[in-house]
Amino acid sequence: MSQTGRKFETIISETRPEFYSRILTIVLSDLNILVTLTIDSAHYKLMRRISKIFLDS
Fold first, then answer.
1. Which of 2, 3, 34, 45 is spaced 20 to 30 A from 52 at the CA atom?
2. Domains contained in the chain, number
3. Can you tell me the distance from the alpha carbon of 20 to that of 27, in angstroms, rounded to the nearest whole number?
4. How far apart are CA 44 and CA 57, in angstroms?
């Protein structure tokens, strides 16, 4: 983990600022997509559970 952090810091210091901000934007948007997918899958599981309860009763 710390090795990756050091590598990332090296990449940041060796690249141009606009390039770094582009990487950061990509990382943030990927994290946002990941969070959205996680919420959606949890919502889907919850909806399936609710519909299963209704079907069972």
1. 34
2. 1
3. 10
4. 20
pTM to 2 decimals?
Answer: 0.31
* Residues 20, 28 contacting (CB under 8 angstroms): no
Domain that holds residue 10: 2-56
The CA distance from 11 to 5, in Å, is: 10
Question: Each residue of 21-55: pLDDT tens digit?
Answer: 677 777 777 777 777 777 778 777 877 887 887 77
- Number of CB atoms found within 10 A of residue 15's CB: 13
Cα-atom radius of gyration of the chain, to the nearest Å? 20
